[in-house]
Amino acid sequence: MRGLMYRDMKYILYRQFLLYLYFVGIYLLTTFLFKQFATEDAHKLFPLLVAMIGIIVFMMMQMLPGQLMKTEEKKEWKYYLIASGLGVKKIVAERYLMTFLMNFWCYVFSYLMMLILFPLADSSTAAQLFSLANMVYLGMLGFNLFIQSFELPLAYRYGGAQSDKMRVAIWLILLLPIAIYLLFGDIDWLLGENGFYYRYQEYIHDPETLTEAAGSYMQNLSRIAVFVFTLIPHLLVLCYYLSYKISCKVYVKGVKDNGFREAA
Amino acid sequence: MDSVKQPSTAVSGSRLSGKQKDLMQILLFVAIAYSLMFIFGPLAYSQTAGADMKKQIFYHLAAFSPAIACVIVRYAFGEGFKDDILFPKFGGHKKAYLLSVALPLLFGLVACVLVTIVLGAGFSFKSEGGAADALLNNMLMSAQFYYAAFILVGEEFGWRAFLYDKLEKHCGLHASLIIGGILWGVWHLPPLVCSGLNFGTDAPGFPVTNVALMCVFCILAGAMMQLLRKMSDSVIAPLIAHAVIDTVCNTLISLFLNEELAEGKQFTIGLCLVAAIMIVGIPCWIILGRRKSIPPVD
Known about the structure:
By secondary structure, chain A is mainly alpha-helical. Chain A contains 10 helices and no strands. The longest helix of chain B has 28 residues, at 18-45. At the A-B interface, helix 4, helix 5 and helix 10 of A face helix 2 and helix 5 of B.
């Protein structure tokens, strides 16, 4: 298992290093420009930078585990793994562990990027904003793990090459009802005069209002809502575990039906 | 034929015997873990130190100091992570994992009963919102279990995955539990002094009493953790147990107490915690003594 983890880490480190550099470069450039040319009200632009970190990290969380599934395309490799005596459970467990670790690393990465931004902050509001952003990033981590707990068994059953298509399909299933609702439903709460969109315009330029609104929203949550929120992490762990169990069951069938042989 | 290359390490070059090497490893480990904790701990736990974000960084550096020390020492002595006690091994160790939740919960319940009796609180819900509110608080803490587990990786990967085993090899099981517990307890000095961890700041003979009681607590909790670690052959079981103690057990007491009853009585509550860990930890120590221990080196 350690050997497999080492192999995956090496693969990720070499192949994804440029991706990290690219994202960090864009982020550092934006922060530098922000610091150089911002006016006295510069701290009001923090929500934009925090949102930018969110987008970068979300993209990374989506891309990295998908890349890993493509490392096991060859049938020979899959048969070799099965014959190695490691056992299907350990082979699958390693992939689940690595997927979790990579998502977690992306979360830590977001934290590190916030650290770069923090010295530019000058008010306690900025600190509150960061803790709010931290919660959002944690939510993103949970959401990605939830999506991947669906994606991984499908990828094991129908092959690594199909995993990208699977991801698109899952996103379509998730987004289609939302798109239909946005097109045909009542969206005054979103785009109306007092809708979320216009309030968001206000929030994005005023961190104080944003943190106040978030704070009052959290305080006004009902007991049932808090109870549901507290259940989410436990349900997520259960979902991930069930996904692992399903992947173990479909692994061998997936190896027989999918994958390609290398040309002699 | 080429001779087989020996792994080149910083320290393995010096011809140390097994016992000397273990001793050097232990000393280096303690020096790194303590120095990181004693530098960053006061900054993290003091009431007036800087902005929240900086405090968080200091807190994480202090909390992860044993794990950092473990990684440095393992690589400095060319040991690496060949033993796979860092990985969870659920197969064949289900009993250990069940105990990793059951034992801390038992400790929490015993502490809860003791605190309620000692403070004369009576076994009725004291939370302002009644039973529902108290249970909701416990649910909230259970959701924080995962974050606590992440933070406690820092401790368990140092103490259980390194120090206790080295000490046991060097000086036997019982001495390892006592010395390990004292080292683990004294490591908590910054939070004990700065924020009155577990025993408050108004204890008689503060902070010496607090440190001594923390050492007793850690010796007995160490016996429980080490039993779980050996039963599961992994540090994940003690990690779960530690996280359950730090989250759910800490709020169980709030079922029967409110702020009014608990105000100014943190030391009494702390003593009840020590009594509760005695009830749970001593049987664990006895069971651990009956198991086959790691043979001493040389």
